[in-house]
Write the structure tokens for this entry.
Amino acid sequence: MAKKIVIIGGVAGGASTAARLRRMDEQAEIIILEKGEHISFANCGLPYHIGDVIPEREKLLVQTPEAMKARFKIDVRIKNEALKINRQQKTLDIKDLATGETYQESYDKLVLSPGARPIKPPLPGLDFDQVFTLRNIPDTDQIKNYLDQHKPDRAVVVGGGFIGLEMAENLHERGLEVSLVEMMDQLMGALDYEMAAQLHNHLRTKGIDLQLGDGITGVEEAGSRKLVNLQSGKSIKTDLVILAIGVKPNTELAAQANLEIGPTGGIKVNEYLQTSDPDIYAIGDAIEVKDFVSENPTMVPLAGPANKQGRIVADNISGRQEKYQGTQGTAIAKAFDLAVASTGLAEKKLQELGIDYHTVHINSNNHAGYYPGAVPMFIKLLFSPEGTVLGAQIVGYEGVDKRIDIFATAVRHKFSIYDLQELELAYAPPYGSAKDPVNMVGFAAGNLLQGEVENTYWQELEDIDPVKTVLLDVREEVETQLGVIKNSINIPLNELRDRLVELDQDKEYISYCAVGLRGYIAARILSQHGFKVSNLSGGYKLYKAVKD
Amino acid sequence: MAKKIVIIGGVAGGASTAARLRRMDEQAEIIILEKGEHISFANCGLPYHIGDVIPEREKLLVQTPEAMKARFKIDVRIKNEALKINRQQKTLDIKDLATGETYQESYDKLVLSPGARPIKPPLPGLDFDQVFTLRNIPDTDQIKNYLDQHKPDRAVVVGGGFIGLEMAENLHERGLEVSLVEMMDQLMGALDYEMAAQLHNHLRTKGIDLQLGDGITGVEEAGSRKLVNLQSGKSIKTDLVILAIGVKPNTELAAQANLEIGPTGGIKVNEYLQTSDPDIYAIGDAIEVKDFVSENPTMVPLAGPANKQGRIVADNISGRQEKYQGTQGTAIAKAFDLAVASTGLAEKKLQELGIDYHTVHINSNNHAGYYPGAVPMFIKLLFSPEGTVLGAQIVGYEGVDKRIDIFATAVRHKFSIYDLQELELAYAPPYGSAKDPVNMVGFAAGNLLQGEVENTYWQELEDIDPVKTVLLDVREEVETQLGVIKNSINIPLNELRDRLVELDQDKEYISYCAVGLRGYIAARILSQHGFKVSNLSGGYKLYKAVKD
Ligand SMILES: Cc1cc2nc3c(=O)[nH]c(=O)nc-3n(C[C@H](O)[C@H](O)[C@H](O)COP(=O)(O)OP(=O)(O)OC[C@H]3O[C@@H](n4cnc5c(N)ncnc54)[C@H](O)[C@@H]3O)c2cc1C
Ligand SMILES: Cc1cc2nc3c(=O)[nH]c(=O)nc-3n(C[C@H](O)[C@H](O)[C@H](O)COP(=O)(O)OP(=O)(O)OC[C@H]3O[C@@H](n4cnc5c(N)ncnc54)[C@H](O)[C@@H]3O)c2cc1C
Ligand SMILES: CC(C)(COP(=O)(O)OP(=O)(O)OC[C@H]1O[C@@H](n2cnc3c(N)ncnc32)[C@H](O)[C@@H]1OP(=O)(O)O)[C@@H](O)C(=O)NCCC(=O)NCCS
Ligand SMILES: CC(C)(COP(=O)(O)OP(=O)(O)OC[C@H]1O[C@@H](n2cnc3c(N)ncnc32)[C@H](O)[C@@H]1OP(=O)(O)O)[C@@H](O)C(=O)NCCC(=O)NCCS
């Protein structure tokens, strides 16, 4: 007899499950319940529709219920909300939101992909019409209509994750003055501070007003406008507010049915993505996953994992035994001309978990420097004392997506830094370098691990004792006009061998250049001449990014 | 006592060796012998300087002898040609080309990085001043001066490898009419025919005259011009000829010193890159390497391997024991708006070697289709019956370099196609898709391997028996106006389930759509309804690329 599968939620996870299920099983009865009006929409495109980068609204609708039915023979019921799972009877209570009627539907297998919803803290004024959250098409329509009709001048975006970032950019591109408020001292929490600092500087250059380390306490009327009040006591006049401070998994249905909820608050699943009831699977933003690197439970509300989990669940329902191996949190966001990306664990996370690690920073061009359009990117690599790649972060203009994917692959397959050195990547001048930035990071990491060089990090500069330690700037003299680190002396690298007499064997030296390359060479020279020396990782450019 | 290392050849391999050597060993005496006038120049940028894409000649000179000396304390002797290796005495006979004098130099370790030279077959007329090869700066100057002074109208480029391709593009961009002559029936020999066919069509669209499957027999005078004669009997009038039919390794010095030469004609080295004399290392275009996938000896004259080999040799001379793991031939070339790339083994190579394989073709956008600027790329994946990735080829507009690097990584680490499915790559609309093309290829390969679908390939369409086999076009009717495969019937995918009665269980079906996705879904539907069916890999678009 044909299996009957009911899927709750018809977007990233749910629609992917349904499509693959049908391909695997032509006979199954497949029902999608979606409480909203749309299925299969491009959540990730919503900010860009608001910003008119994607002007055509219909482009956001990747599939419609009709098309899903025609192609995949799927019974798509929009405006149908699952109210209750009756596990004993294997039925659902469902409300048809159009008619208001409630009915029951049975299932052999149930798939939960109900997603998550924007967090709205219980603060005064968040119910004003001008305070928006963004999750689906109606939210998008509301914001876009508001912009089109009221032509507002000012917006406050609360929350510095990727949705906040994308909204800040898209509103700014529509001509609004934008303030971005973030409780932490940095945007994009998955990045370490010095990497985020580069993003902060870029946003400021573009004219975004950043309010970091400050949370909102509420919104109030202020004449024809609103006033967003901050913990610091500041307040910002605005026409609209976008709340993008994170999402909360939709676990109510599952909890009510006594399905296990994990410690992080998501629905708990095993490696086959089964909940504590083996006939009920759960995927997407609503579930807790295993962090691929630390193996700790975590939540990673991203589309890639949701879509892939959907396919795995479809396969498992169709009789296979596929495991989901965990989520490593690979992510990327565009911020004007910049791309910021990360994969695996950040330094702060490693510290939090008490995992030993090393780190290097590299600044390399996206492709051969002599070919037009070469632009630099900063890469930060984190690796274990044994050399296993634990995580990477990149901030740059072009080619960031390419390198983060290789690091994501490296994290996935537990590559060592020596593996990075050896990767044979494609090189022609428009695309890369004979030694790709990925190789280069491997080299720098290898040098650190094999003791060819010691690194000093920007955080450590605060604590150095100027009596014991000398900062040695090995840039050309003209470069010092761009700024120097306080108390440093300048000996250009190419003069270093001839001027060793000027140095003191009893002191410790920290060499630095613009990005770390010449500083490294200087360190090699000095250490072989018997000096105690370390190289400032990331050089002056990274140091300055943090200080700016 | 300080080691004395002499390096023959001061460009990609040689200069990289020297720089790393100095960093590892401040005391060593390091001499570079370079018979030309320049060291460390950007070979790979030469065509783009000729095309004025890189207008500044000095940008091609990545390092000068003076800078190399200042930074790395290296004794760089340009216009010094090594004439003979005296292995017994561990000395070299060297000719100072400026003075004409010959002298000797001793070495503790010798590194050979003499590169390769363009092949010039013994055909009539190849000594005309208007027949050029391109390897170094003087070659570049000659070609560029000729173009600047004579403002020629027509060029013939002989050889369809990446240098030929780059020269054809750059000459065309300078306003010349360009014919590209290639003896094989396709350009870019590392690609399989159907992938190269897409390149052919693109070049023709751009106005390049392609003469494939035709070799030159010679060049003769024709009034103020030259006539290039072809084997087919055709001849082409031209103002200049660029010969780019491949390179020959510079092995004479090594051979004369009785160092072992491998079966492919390159200097034989062990995994530490030592020649048959352990005090002599060899790297770069001059050596034979192990093909990483097949483990057969081969020659891969590319800059990435040369530079990395240089670093390994420097490390080994400094006392480490690093192995070179072989070369997989990862390569990419720009051809106008197109990028063509490959890694690992091609289908034809697998056939030649008698290695069992499967293949799938995928056509996916570089990033989310709803975000502006999405453009498709064709990916071909080759994998073993056990699922190990053996090679990949890509032709497309954007994002080709990114995906080939992931496939290169997959080949390097012997990933299975299931590993490709699981890779967690970075997704935001401007950069990728929730299921990246790399994942998608993994899915399609998995479906083939697990028997969910059978594929038919473009080559097989010739041989089908129309009585037994029906071509089933599942595109929308309007799409058939773009052309159809002869003798096919059209049932749009979304009508297929309702029109199964029109089909005949006794026939075999080959379903096809534009690129293979809908054809695959059709095949799933038909096979589950008891029909014999296979899907045309790559669909009509790939088929048409071959037929055009
Ligand atoms: C503005 C925005 C931008 C984003 N950008 C990116 C990006 O660039 N990259 C990236 O990787 N991810 C991005 N995401 C995240 C990504 O969209 C989600 O991770 C993904 O959609 C999660 O899939 P899901 O199936 O779990 O949930 P959803 O796609 O949200 O689908 C859940 C559906 O279930 C329905 N539902 C819930 N409860 C019920 C019920 N009881 N009965 C019936 N239906 C129900 C909901 O109405 C909803 O439509 C973005 C998200 C947003 C909002
Ligand atoms: C036009 C062009 C474009 C290219 N584009 C790319 C590309 O996009 N991507 C890519 O990966 N590769 C590319 N390559 C290939 C790449 O440049 C080579 O693989 C690389 O330079 C090989 O390094 P090598 O050290 O072996 O030889 P080379 O870099 O050629 O250096 C060898 C040097 O040795 C000197 N020499 C030889 N014999 C002696 C002697 N007896 N005494 C003293 N000196 C001697 C030569 O004068 C020469 O300068 C390109 C090459 C060319 C010519
Ligand atoms: C639209 C949606 C239902 C599509 O699901 P889908 O059918 O699984 O995905 P695609 O259309 O990309 O097709 C992929 C299938 O085609 C196959 N395929 C793709 N190209 C192919 C080709 N050239 N030849 C053969 N097969 C091919 C793949 O193998 C895969 O099939 P499989 O899963 O059975 O192996 C789902 O992705 C969705 O709802 N997306 C929008 C919501 C969303 O994801 N939001 C978050 C991101 S904005
Ligand atoms: C110019 C040339 C001599 C440079 O060689 P190089 O000094 O080894 O290369 P780079 O300048 O890129 O520096 C790389 C070194 O800096 C280190 N490095 C780079 N960025 C760093 C950073 N931010 N912090 C610390 N170290 C860094 C790397 O680890 C590497 O050192 P290592 O090999 O000791 O580990 C050589 O590449 C060359 O001749 N190129 C032109 C010829 C050529 O390659 N042609 C073919 C391609 S067109």
Notes: Residues 140 and 363 of chain B are 38 Å apart (CA to CA). The first strand of chain B starts at residue 4 and ends at 8.
